[in-house]
Design goal:
Blueprint (H helix, E strand, L loop, with lengths): L4 E5 L3 E5 L3 H7 L5 E3 L4 E5 L3 H10 L4 E5 H23 L9
């Protein structure tokens, strides 16, 4: 099974995670900095095309996501949970439970 490199794109930085992510970023000509807060190697988002081109050249699978997508998914999940809780407390056409 091939290992996937994941890249999370924030506003000004990109975070790369995965097996040998640091070595691959160095091979692409980047100088990533490890940060424990992000739990990955951080570099300037303007250099993202260089890294993706290098990974494509090396035939390494890449998954790119944005922080906004992750936040939108979390918001949608919390909205669904809130609706389920609302229906559990106040079923349609019935008296409140509890």
């Amino acid at each position: 099974m091939r290992r996937i490199i994941t890249i999370e794109v924030n506003d000004a930085v990109a975070i790369v995670r995965g097996y040998r992510a640091h070595a691959l970023a160095l091979g692409a000509g980047l100088r990533p900095i490890y940060t424990g807060v992000a739990q990955g190697w951080v570099f300037d988002v303007d250099r993202l095309p260089e890294l993706t081109a290098y990974l494509q050249y090396r035939n390494i699978p890449v998954e790119i996501s944005t922080a906004r997508e992750d936040l939108a998914d979390q918001d949608a999940q919390s909205d669904e949970l809130a609706e389920d809780a609302q229906l559990a407390l106040f079923p349609p056409g019935g008296a409140p439970c509890g």
